[in-house]
Amino acid sequence: MESSIGFLWNALETSIRLIFSFDGEVYGIVLRSLGFSLSATVVAVLFGVPVGFLIGSKRFRGRSAVITILNTAMALPTVVVGLIGYSFLSRSAPLGFLNLMFSPKAVILGEFLLSLPIITNLTAAAVQSVHPAAIATARTLGAGRFQTTWTILMEARFALVAAIVVGYGRAVSEVGSAMMLGGNIRFYTRTMTTAIALETSKGEFGLGLALGFFLLLVVLSVNILFHYFQVRGRTG
Amino acid sequence: MSILELRDITHIYNRTEVLGISALSIEKGEIYAIVGPNGSGKTTLLSIMSLGLRPSHGKIYFEGHPIRYDTKSLMAVRRSVTMVLQTPYLFNTSVAKNVAYGLRARGVPKKDLDKRVMEALEWVGLDGFGKRKARELSGGETQLVALARALVLNPALLFLDEPTANVDARHVHLFEGIISRINKERGTTVVMTTHNLSQAYRLTERVFSLFEGSLVTSSMHNLFSGKVLLTEEGPCFDTGAIRIWIPPGSESVEATHVTINPENIIASGEPFASSARNQFQGIITEIIDQGGRILLKVRSQEIFGLQITHHSLRNMRLTVGSRVYLTFKASSVQLL
Q1: Proportion of chain B above pLDDT 70, given as a percent
Q2: Fewest 10 Å CB contacts: which of A229, B154, B175, B335?
Q3: What global pTM score does this model have?
Q4: With contact defined as beta carbons under 8 Å apart, do A223 and A169 qualify?
Q5: Which residue from A137, A142, A235 is facing B89, i.e. has the nearest CB?
């Protein structure tokens, strides 16, 4: 009992030392992780917001099927995304010639595939929640198509930001695809989650714990931001 | 000169004709009120006139030119007309940005824009409200911001859908004052819908009545619902509260409503000796000066509206609360 408490205490001591000594490897992993997720989210926003806008604002055949697929994709296990990515990017796969496997781009691609359905789906929901009178009002005031679209996006801005924040949260906290597509290569594709998995399995619990603190901090920030934008969206 | 003309307009919704207007002309610089009960097609008509809705059939002419429903020509006309919705939608931003919206859409430079926004807010008595959050305003203030947002565009034609339906009495008075003022000072043509006939007549003499999607000749003052009954003394219309004698031969009509033109009802202090079969006694509840004529509202078992001259009002010494007798012929009753 005493030794298990000692083990935890030692790990905690190590993690605090690593954080406050500004350990290069720990901070490198954190920054790389945040950077990968940010890149993945930016690309997902570029694709997801316009597609989500169309789904949310237009009525077309097969719309409900698209929404069902997106809902399913939102809950896609990360290892499945890793598996799909692997089947396309590995050396003998159709896109193997691109040499993306075990590179930062592969990690970003995996995180992009995970956050894309979330951002698309939540954008569609955000756009759909804008009162139809907003469109009628914009038109009666002489707005053209582009201005009307911009107005809808602005009316849904808090929900949109919340969608992006959730997408980022999904990207930063996933482990399966980053492990399978990035390979957890030190100083290259190692992210917070893959490092935690590796270091813990090696018995380096202190490093895992230090990264865990950062990951918790990020996830907590994401949730606080999400809640903030949700409340702003309701109250204006 | 007419600014807007509707010819042979019909609108079909769910395979049912909800609007049928053979001809309607809106003259420049006038105020028009469209009155009618809920579901009579007022909002549909206004949406069609403001080009927010394309009619199923018929033509609309704006300043003599037929409307073509392509984006370019619609945009051109929409820049000259605007509409304030019954429940206005204010964008989730400041009052000033809401008022500036249409000006931004028209590419008005920032310097002019700020000045015009301030002027528009002054027009509606909301100067100093610019920085307030639009979503935190009261119902009356919301309506006024929506009106300012329309007025700032200085439209040639302004459509108001039930502008005072959701506001308190103080704001109703303010609203009516603004509508009259913009019409007089700017020459803005105003077309508004209302279910409040008194309000319609306070603002204009050009009042259209809409009933089940059609313009009807008589006013909606005396519109009663009920059913036709055949009695030994002849056909009558039973409203549930009163029986109104209707012209012989009309008993076969499957009418659910009747209306009586207020001009055809005679008011007298004593029972009026006449061959007219319909006679009711009531109390005056409202006296509305319509300029040339006086509109009396009389509460009997039903509420009646009738028009008399200023001379008659003085001679009969009628005031709110006076008891009067109402007389009208069966032939004055129009079955709908």
Answers
A1: 96
A2: B154
A3: 0.72
A4: yes
A5: A137
Query: What interhelical angle do A24-57 and A192-202 show, nearest 10?
Result: 130
- The residues facing B66 across adjacent strands are B61
Report the residue of chain A nearest B157, measured CA to CA: A140
CB–CB contact A140 B52 (8 Å): yes
Q: What is the pLDDT of residue A3?
A: 66
Give residue B50's Cα distance to chain centre: 15
- Kind plus residue range of the DSSP H or E element containing B139: helix B139-151
Q: How many whole angstroms from its chain centre is CA B69?
A: 27
Contacting residues for A8 by C-beta, under 8 A, at least 6 apart: none
A141 touches chain B (CB under 8 A): yes
Please name which of B202, B240, B195 lies closest in space to residue B220, comparing C-alpha atoms.
B195
Structure tokens at A161: 């930001």
Number of residue pairs across A and B with CB atoms under 8 Å?
A: 60
Of the CA atoms within 13 Å of residue A47, those in its CB half-sphere come to 14
Three-class SS of residue B288?
strand
Q: How far is CA A180 from CA A35, A81, A128, in A?
A: 18, 9, 36
Interface test with B, best of A130, A135, A140, A146 (most B CBs within 10 A): A140
Start-to-end Cα distance in chain B: 33
Which DSSP helix (H) or strand (E) runs through A52? helix A24-57
Whole-angstrom Cα Rg for chain A: 21
Sheet strands (E) in B272-322 = 278-289, 294-299, 303-308
Q: Are B193 and B113 in contact (CB under 8 A)?
A: no
| Alpha-carbon span B91 to A130, nearest angstrom | 10
Quick check: A137 contacting B, CB < 8 Å?
yes
| Nearest alpha-carbon partner for B324 in B333, B312, B336, B332 | B312
- Residue keyed to tokens 């931001």: A225
Q: Whole-angstrom Cα distance, residue B108 to residue A67?
A: 40
Q: Roughly what angle, to the nearest 10 degrees, separates helices A63-74 and A24-57?
A: 160
Tens of pLDDT along B185-241? 999 999 999 877 777 877 887 888 888 888 875 556 788 888 888 888 889 999 999
**From CA B88, how far away is CA B101, in angstroms rounded?**
14
- From chain A, the residues in CB contact with B106 under 8 A are 142
Classify the complex by whether its ipTM is higher than 0.85, answering yes or no.
Answer: no
Ramachandran region of residue B212, left (φ > 0), alpha (ψ -120 to 50) or beta? left
Q: C-alpha distances in angstroms, A156 versus A54, A111, A142, B136, B277?
A: 14, 25, 20, 18, 63
A196 close to A211: Cβ distance less than 8 angstroms = yes
Secondary structure element (H or E) that encloses residue B230, with its range: strand B227-231
pLDDT, tens digit, 9 for 90 and up, residues A12-37 = 888 888 888 888 999 999 999 999 99
Residues in chain A: 236
Asked if B327 and B298 touch (Cβ cutoff 8 Å), the reply is no
